[in-house]
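Reader question, answered in our methods column.
A reader sent in the components of a multi-part assembly and asked whether the whole thing could be modeled at once rather than chain by chain. We filled in our standard form and ran it. Here is what they sent:
COMPLEX SIZE: two components
ENTRIES:
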Amino acid sequence: MRGIGKSFPGVRALSDVSLTLSAGEVLVLVGENGAGKSTLMKILAGALQADEGEIFIEGRPVRIATPQEAQHLGIGMIYQEFTLVPQLPAPANIALGVEPTRAGLIETGAVRARAERALGELGLEIPLDVPVSHLSIGQQQLVEIAKVLARSARIIVMDEPTAALSDREIERLFEIVRRLRAGGAGIIYISHRMEELSRIADRITVMRDGKVVETRNAAEFSADEIIRAMVGRRLDAHFPELAKPAPDAPIRLDVRGLTRAPAVHDVSFSVRSGEIVALAGLIGAGRTEIVRAIAGADPRDGGDVRIDGAALPAGDIGGAIAAGVAFITEDRKAQGLVLGMTVRENVTLAHLADFVDRDLLIDAARERAATEKMIGELRIRTPGTEQLARNLSGGTQQKVVLAKWLLGNARVFLFDEPTRGIDVGAKAEIYKIMLELAQRGAAIVMVSSDLPEALGMAHRILVVRGGRIAAEFARADATPDKVIAVATGAAA
Amino acid sequence: MNQENRLAYWLRIAAAAAFVIVLVAVVDVASRGSFLEPSNIVRVLRQITYNCVLGVGQTFVIITGGIDLSVGSLVALTGVVAALFANAVHLSGFPLIAATLIVALGVGSIAGWINALPVVRLNLPPFITTLAMLEMALGASFILAHGRPVALSSPDFQNTGIGSFLGGVTSALHLPSLPVPVIWMVVVILVASVLLTRTRFGRYVFAIGGNEEAARLAGINVARVKTAVYVISGACAAIVGFLYMALFSSGSPQTGTGDELLESIAAVVVGGTSLTGGRGSVIGTFFGALLIGVLYNAMNLLNVDSYLQKVLLGAVILFAVVLDELRKRYLSRQ
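And here is the structure of the entire assembly that came back:
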């Protein structure tokens, strides 16, 4: 791959990325969340189209417009989310889309033989007669690999394949990877886990901010050096000055022993009035689940949440909102906005009771006035209150979500990835709003996968790993290396 | 409404108006003027009343992304129960009419509540739960009526069924008399329209249909709102059951079980309500029902074969929704 570039509305996801992979080699791709690894691999697999750059396979330039074309070129992709049909057994899944037929009918025997051969190559025994949903996650992953092999893939991409596997299953996976390598396949392996790298990698490529920063042979790349390359020197000045909360500021949000199986275990922390606390960690560490349980979006299995000393009922979103909790969700399109509604209707949705007159009808004029005020305060770039949320850019949509929660008198703000996928200008404005909220006495919890953001915008950083708080750093002590080391399990 | 929406809105109105004017002119000429006679216009309104009221209830359900297949059977069930009740109580005049209406509304609402229960508690698809209700309500009405219409023993319902509204005034002005059921339709449309466009409840109906998770996270009690839309649909079916009972002077287990269900859904969809939820209006449903009613009326005046009428109706429904989709695509490309 040479000079690959890709932009999404408002974001440059990849710029001038070049990558080579030899036959019989395992190339490990590392980088923080959002560094561009998955985007790059999706381009290789035909799921996305590059804006610029070229791809060569065995020296020949190729155009990969669809996943089918990628398959024909011998590119196999194993996504984090499985692409198996849960109700079908393993052989049918392995043959899916390339079923051998005779006279238009599927040859069941050939399907099964092919599955046995593919699994045999991997040295695996997996029940072939039960739906794959009855298999363990590890076994499903192996079926996924067999599916790729059955399509005679020569380039195999694995996106965090060990995320859901047990130690024994990981051992077996590594064994398979080595076998594939010995068979001459080229493997691109995306991982977050430091301890895996030295065991499996021939070469390591580090990506950051949509660029390749460094590629070296695994033997000459120490864990420290890798982390440093991942983080870079990016703690730059675009974060506003953080005022310290008064040491005697009252505790606003108090979380004790919060548990929500299977993602959250015995999490305790508190946030003072005027304080911003970041939850750092890898994707899947349980950060989102922690804030969801606090907000009442998910039920709790145990533990206590208190706002200004008053206990918050579990699993009750309406109760949490009434108690002053605002939950700004990670995925604004899926959870934050009703895209087919106007800016006005979205902004007032959570506090519509305040706009109802004595005749029980909504006062649209008051709604418009309140929305216009928000548009002014947050500088929401919309032609007006009646624009559909669908038609706004990502950053503007995020501001509409913010406006929805600023409308009430929330005292505790839970931000889940508040700036993901939005441009730098809108980011800075959202930071400013967060700061103002803190200065007015709100307690803020921010889940962020953007490490500079977590370090630059929070008074304290809690690192979450495996659903627990693995470490806590004060702003002054936190460095990217330390946080990443804890998050990836390289340090306790 | 922003400019783009407003443009879309007026384009839509203009296209619909042009279509209707051309259709009306052609039919009127072809039928030698009988189409535009006031008495014929009133006849169309009376004919669409029942499907329109069913469609209004259905509109709420469809905007949340659901569907209510049980409304036809509920027309039968509420009509039978109302007739049995009216024959059993010793009331007359207005108290009898009011009590019978309340009983019908009660039956329809409870059925709607039962429809909603598995939908909101177990997240079952409403297609199945209301299909089950369709069968249950139909069977129950045959059992209750012993398989034949329950004739009303009291003549007090005559005015509700076939009477005219303010008959003295309209005849003094040499206008055709307005049937009472048409007034019911107008009232239902007005109340439903205000409910849907001006109240919190209505806003929540749209929000749930547009993005249920976002609605839930905004603190909206999704289960309660969803339950309410099925109750409203059941209540609208009850009003139709009551009006049919008054019209025929009997509650029949076969009333409402013909084309009513599908034609009321057609009215909703032709009226611009999206089957995927989040978008729609009560007024649109009225115009959808009107279009279907006018079409039938015109075809009758022009002596179109009744089997061919079905083919043409289906074609018009398909044409209307295809046109709407093309219009949306055109606007979203701009």
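What stands out: The interface with chain A takes residues 1-5, 194, 198-200, 203-204, 206-207, 210-211, 213-221, 278-279 of chain B (CB under 8 Å). Residues 80 and 144 of chain B are 7 Å apart (CA to CA).
Send us your own complexes using the same form.
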